[in-house]
Amino acid sequence: MMLSFLLLSGCVETDVIDDILMAESEGYDYIGNDKVVGTITMPNYAEGGVSGSGGGGLPSTAAMMNSASTITYDGRSLVEVLQKEGQKTITAGKLRLMLFNQAYLQHGLNKVLHFRNQDPEVGRDLFLAMVDGSCFDLLTGSYLTAIPISRYAYDLIFQNEQKNFPQTNLKSFFYNYYGYQTDPYMPIIKKEKQHLVITGVALLKHDKYAGRIAGENNVFIFKALMETFKYGFYDYEFKPGEHIALENVSSQIKYAAEAGNSPEPRITASLKIIGYIRQGNPLLTTLDYNTSIKKNLQKELESKMETMVSQFQEKRIDPLGLGDLVRSYTRNFNSSSWKDRYPNAHFRAHVTIDIAETGVSK
């Protein structure tokens, strides 16, 4: 046994950080005929670095960025094809982002997802996102920040997932992609001058683009239907030109299903929100939040939730995983006919809102 340990000790290849380039983001711009413009970015941890450039806890070389781009065929590893442009060995072990333009999503992600799922070097916590515009322009643009673009975009997506946007990474994306009767989704980001903004959620039908959810209120509704969360916000216009901003302290969603094998299954979503009123017209201090304002807001949320699910049914996509939900409630579930019965399912939402506080003054 001791001899075997000695023999195995030299089998693992080691990499010195000064001697490699670690790709942190990949961008895929589909240009037609099964061809893509592939772009990668990586920080160069060169020995010595740039004096004074490493604020915010980052190494002094964090401002030294390299990028590479090429035209290649769909499904090929960008790290491998761009090795010839790297002055050092390029690795994918620190990949944070995979970005796709809308044309790529319309073409289909099947090849690149199959390749990425087989890659043992890449972690499952990276983000996939659709880019409004060009991935090349986004990854090679200049921004009002000293940190690399891959970390800037990663932090942007991460902090928005703590608010209104649904949580998603490669692991959850694959769960929805390979899962039973469910479809994946991803955030949409856009370059606006020297800033990045997250503008919505891209919906997929298996591996192809099927539409988007835009607007903070609509994304809030989508997330509320998707998961239990805190710190979201909703802008409610209770009168023309009169708004209140509801910030939820907690949001809990529960589902139930009936008649799962019938031609028209019944699905019920029960949502409970406890929230603060963070801003609103000063006259609201004289209104009773437990009557008209709260009840009208509950009706609006219920109506928008039912409309959103109806749109999913029309597109025959299921990002909420309602098919798997109905299966879990139904003995001897008839899975073969679910795709035909899904558009006819009756979905109802019931929302309960408790207002915890209305601000500093009442």
Commentary on this structure:
The protein has helices at 2-8, 78-81, 102-107, 110-117, 135-140, 149-161, 170-178, 216-226, 289-315, 322-329, 338-341, and strands at 20-22, 25-32, 35-43, 65-73, 89-91, 97-101, 127-132, 185-192, 195-205, 208-214, 233-239, 242-258, 266-280, 346-357. The chain has 362 residues and is α/β, with parallel strands linked by helices. It starts with a helix and ends in a 5-residue tail after the last strand.
Give a quick rundown of the structure.
It is built from eleven helices and 14 strands. The protein has helices at residues 2-8, 78-81, 102-107, 110-117, 135-140, 149-161, 170-178, 216-226, 289-315, 322-329, 338-341, and strands at 20-22, 25-32, 35-43, 65-73, 89-91, 97-101, 127-132, 185-192, 195-205, 208-214, 233-239, 242-258, 266-280, 346-357. Helix 8 packs across helix 9.
Q: Which properties best describe this structure?
A:
alpha/beta; eight-stranded mixed sheet; 362 residues; four-stranded mixed sheet
List the helices and strands and how they pair.
Elements: H1 2-8, E1 20-22, E2 25-32, E3 35-43, E4 65-73, H2 78-81, E5 89-91, E6 97-101, H3 102-107, H4 110-117, E7 127-132, H5 135-140, H6 149-161, H7 170-178, E8 185-192, E9 195-205, E10 208-214, H8 216-226, E11 233-239, E12 242-258, E13 266-280, H9 289-315, H10 322-329, H11 338-341, E14 346-357
Parallel strand pairs: 1-5, 2-6, 6-7, 7-8, 13-14
Antiparallel strand pairs: 2-3, 3-4, 8-9, 9-10, 11-12, 12-13
Helix pairs in contact: 8-9
